[in-house]
Automatic annotation (TrEMBL):
Protein name (database record): C40 family peptidase
Sequence ranges of Polar residues compositional bias: 20-32
InterPro entries reported for this sequence: NLP_P60_dom, Papain-like_cys_pep_sf, PG_Endopeptidase_C40
NlpC/P60 domain: residues covered: 37-155
Length: 181
């Protein structure tokens, strides 16, 4: 090797990082996919998946559910612990939700805390009604309104995040032609 560094070959340029070009709608799609599913949505999906399962007094398994057993297992699947009975579930949350403020995933209580269901969509709940029936989704009737004691929201942060996600979904795609990452 010659003095002064002669004879050293210049270093080859490093390979540039691969680039990805995305359109505005593709950027929005990536943003939407990064939003985690809130606990209330996991719980609701669980409860809705159990439609047709028989009511079993004291049940909290695939063989059958009573009303509070269904709520217990649905929220357990979402990582939120609930007490066993409807009255205990109601009492476990200090913040109560009014009829007019019900959102999907809220637990709704009726008949002197003798029954609980979960709001599935505006005006409907999923529940395990009584002996001889099955887990089902049903419209909140006027009779239910009269028997309503109160409601609780086991996943308030998830409800807020879902509202933000819904706003993101409704928003137009970013006003850009492309983005290279």
């Amino acid at each position: 090797m010659a003095a002064g560094g002669a004879g050293l070959a210049p270093a080859a340029p490093a390979d540039p990082a691969p680039s990805v070009t995305l359109t505005g709608p593709q950027v929005k799609q990536v943003q939407e996919q990064r939003v985690p599913k809130p606990a209330w949505k996991v719980a609701l999906d669980y409860a809705m998946d159990k439609r047709g399962t028989p009511y079993v007094w004291g049940g909290a398994s695939e063989r059958g559910y009573d009303c509070s057993g269904l709520m217990l297992r649905a929220y357990e699947d979402a990582g939120i612990e609930l007490p066993r009975t409807a009255a205990e579930q109601y009492g476990a949350f200090s913040r109560k939700i009014a009829w007019k403020d019900l959102k999907p995933g809220d637990l709704v209580f009726f008949s002197n805390l003798g029954h609980v269901g979960m709001i599935s969509k505006p005006g409907f709940m999923v529940h395990s009604p009584h002996t001889g029936d099955v887990v089902k989704e049903e419209r909140l009737s006027q009779w239910r309104r009269q028997a309503f004691v109160g409601a609780v929201r086991p996943d308030p942060k998830g409800v807020k995040r879902w509202a933000d996600y819904t706003a993101l979904r409704k928003a137009p795609a970013p006003a850009m032609l492309t983005a290279t990452l």
